[in-house]
Amino acid sequence: MIRVENVSKSFTLHNQGSATIEVMRGASLAVAPGECVALTGNSGAGKSTLMRMIYGNYLAASGRILVGAVDVARAEPREILALRRATLGYVSQFLRVVPRVPTIEVVAEPLLAVGTPREAALARAGGLLARLNIPETLWGLSPTTFSGGEQQRVNIARGFAHDYPAMLLDEPTASLDAGNRETVLALIEEAKARGAAIVGIFHDEAARARVADREIDVSAFTPKAAA
Ligand SMILES: Nc1ncnc2c1ncn2[C@@H]1O[C@H](COP(=O)(O)OP(=O)(O)OP(=O)(O)O)[C@@H](O)[C@H]1O
């Protein structure tokens, strides 16, 4: 479902005389439906960079990044947006809060975007918010004023609202209490069980051991000259 083939990446530092640093070379991995692959490697090895390339935020210098039938490394922006709407989900630790939109709508939005009837979308959103211990009294309010932890849980609810066939998880359990961490791990297991292909970064080792089927150390893709 997700296939990275021989991908390389360089950054041009425009504020430093346009110096170019190569941060990745020959990156390859494949994730099947129902499988979770954890990216590992020291800080700076390139875990986030690889994840951002799969999501299409960073452009790969060469190679192919297939998500389903779409090559993200070559796709038009509108194809990437369509891919993100229906196929490729991304759960980061941080919610990008849209002002004045109630929490329940923030969570239901990805479902409405793929044509789920409003009532079903709101029911699913409410179910996720309840599982993640966001009190119902808050559902009608914008999450702008929520605590950091509440915003993170709203973000996770939103990220798991639609059943994406492919998902990217960037530290989904970071800074959660034990109960909510357990819920997130269960959501990941449920996503795998319904056939989602998942790539994740988990600094939480116990979480990684529980949900990841395989680990890929991205430092294997660090060009030797830059290491
Ligand atoms: N936008 C950017 N511009 C320049 N260099 C970048 C950029 N993004 C990442 N890098 C460089 O690419 C390398 C890999 O960084 P990346 O953030 O992917 O590592 P990581 O493995 O996710 O680290 P961490 O575990 O600390 O989050 C680093 O040397 C970093 O400085």
From TrEMBL:
Keyword tRNA-binding part of the UniProt annotation: no
Keyword Nucleotide-binding set for record: yes
SUPFAM superfamilies according to UniProt: P-loop containing nucleoside triphosphate hydrolases
UniProt similarity note: Belongs to the ABC transporter superfamily.
Keyword terms of this UniProt record: ATP-binding, Lyase, Nucleotide-binding
One GO MF term: lyase activity
Record-given protein name: Phosphonate C-P lyase system protein PhnL
Family matches, as PANTHER family: ALPHA-D-RIBOSE 1-METHYLPHOSPHONATE 5-TRIPHOSPHATE SYNTHASE SUBUNIT PHNL, LIPOPROTEIN-RELEASING SYSTEM ATP-BINDING PROTEIN LOLD
InterPro entries named among the record's database cross-references: AAA+_ATPase, ABC_transporter-like_ATP-bd, ABC_transporter-like_CS, CP_lyase_PhnL, P-loop_NTPase
Domain ABC transporter: 2-226
